[in-house]
Amino acid sequence: MAQSKVLTTQDHSRDSAGLTYVYPVISRRAGGLSIGINLNPNNACNWRCIYCQVPGLQRGSAPVIDLNQLRTELNDFLVDVVQADFFHRFEVEPRYRVIRDVAISGNGEPTSAANFDLIVGLVGELIEKFELRGDINLVLITNGSLMHRSVIQDGLKTLNRYGGAVWFKLDRATDEGLAQINNAGLSVKRVRENLIKSAELCETWAQTSVFSLDGKVMSVDEQDAYLRLLKSVVGQTNAFKGVLLYGLARPSLQPEAPRLTKVPEKWINQFVDQIESLGLIVNLNA
After folding, report:
1. pLDDT band for position 1 (50/70/90)?
2. What topology is assigned to 22-285 in CATH?
3. Residue 150 Cα to chain centre, angstroms
4. Rounded distance, CA 114 to CA 128, Å?
5. Contact assessment for residue 164 and residue 142, using Cβ atoms and an 8 Å cutoff
6. Domain ranges of the chain
7. Which of 2, 4, 23, 116 is 20–30 Å from 161 (CA)?
8. How far is CA 263 from CA 214, 215, 257, 280, 286, in A?
9. For residue 204, what are the CA distances in angstroms to 4, 106, 142?
């Protein structure tokens, strides 16, 4: 694999390795290398979140994924990292020269890939081949909108067998909020059902982005609805673990970008306290 650039924690580009599906990210949050699997190289998604950082985002589904190409790319990339001089060639800081996770994600919704269950199995097999299982995290990053499909449920069962986890997008908990922030086109009732289904099949975390819109933080009504939804899920299954709470890390590439700003530290800390009062773990990356 030829060197294309120096990799730092500031660069989250998905073409830095020159591959179609596999890309490296040096993550300050994770403390090392996150290996991304991009199942939406066509930049197509069934949602349009106003904070999305994907350039040229369009409505649609993942393209047909070439499983042989994906297998070759991930296998060769792991050879380069585990057995060769990847970290040296890309001038990665010594403290970040460790694999932390493999994340099935995309420039869109990854579960829209037609052969999603086979993809999860392929990734899991390669993690085992390189004896990484148990040493790294295997994560699916999803908006959770397609959990009702059997192929997705089969994929989550496979993900669970390999010790993986789901990061389930949950930014708002009212129909109006979902429409405004995610342009989601589905109801909160369906979101709750999908969240429970995910947690029935695999360890699941809610992933929530918080920000101010036009200078205003999440409304009290929206906060209350969010907390009620979480409370209604707690106890449904032991596999629902908690919330991954994120602030604005990088600029949005959507038309709403100028309207988005970071929330005050005091507000986000109070929000964390409210979530933790439900007995849930909160991991904050503001």
Report:
1. very low
2. TIM Barrel (3.20.20)
3. 21
4. 24
5. no
6. 22-285
7. 23
8. 11, 9, 14, 22, 9
9. 35, 18, 11
